[in-house]
């Protein structure tokens, strides 16, 4: 007898896999720049809400390309270095600090500024120089307003009867 081939019914193969394997869809999503909250402007004093620095008051410097906020304490006043923060984790206050004049001679991108080599234990010298220059400029701007240094150095706290949704920051 002659061998017969397996017949294909209605164009369907005789073997069908047990699990349906879906093809991944091509997605053409274009990620948009994160919009800055209307209450946040350069020089604005913000309160950090999360992390080991929560409750600290910081000065907003600018929004980075990634959408994060660049903030600084300054370090000499309340111990907060230049740091990236998501705007969901801050409260904007009504207090403003005069933003210091910028030195644009050595502008760096976000990746270059925050790049840390894991093998090294010391911070790069230019990072420390930038932080000290920023600290000095912010410290001078804060010193112009009376009691602002004391305000920046105190932690934000809530007591049991406080209602944050009714507070004016």
Automatic annotation (TrEMBL):
Similarity field: Belongs to the eukaryotic ribosomal protein eL6 family.
Keywords per UniProt: Ribonucleoprotein, Ribosomal protein
Keyword Membrane (UniProt): no
Example GO biological process: ribosomal large subunit assembly
Pfam assignment, any one: Ribosomal_L6e
GO MF assignments: RNA binding; structural constituent of ribosome
SUPFAM superfamilies for the chain: Translation proteins SH3-like domain
GO cellular component, one term: cytosolic large ribosomal subunit
Protein name in UniProt: Ribosomal protein L6, component of cytosolic 80S ribosome and 60S large subunit
InterPro entries cross-referenced by the UniProt entry: 60S_ribosomal_eL6 (IPR000915), Rib_uL2_dom2 (IPR014722), Ribosomal_eL6_KOW (IPR041997), Translation_prot_SH3-like_sf (IPR008991)
UniProt-annotated stretches for the region Disordered: 1-20
């Amino acid at each position: 007898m002659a061998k017969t081939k397996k017949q294909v019914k209605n164009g369907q193969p005789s073997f069908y896999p047990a699990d349906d394997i879906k093809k991944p869809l091509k997605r053409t999503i274009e990620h948009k720049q994160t919009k800055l909250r209307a209450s946040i402007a350069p020089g604005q004093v913000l309160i950090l809400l999360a992390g080991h620095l929560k409750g600290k008051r910081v000065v907003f410097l600018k929004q980075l390309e990634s959408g994060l906020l660049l903030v600084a304490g300054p370090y000499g006043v309340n111990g907060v270095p230049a740091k990236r923060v998501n705007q969901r984790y801050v409260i904007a206050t009504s207090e403003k600090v005069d933003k210091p004049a910028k030195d644009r001679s050595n502008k760096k991108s976000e990746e270059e500024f925050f790049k840390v080599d894991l093998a090294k234990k010391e911070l790069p010298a230019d990072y420390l120089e930038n932080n000290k220059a920023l600290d000095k400029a912010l410290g001078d701007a804060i010193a112009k307003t009376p009691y602002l240094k004391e305000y920046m150095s105190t932690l934000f706290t809530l007591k049991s009867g406080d209602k944050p949704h009714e507070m004016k920051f």
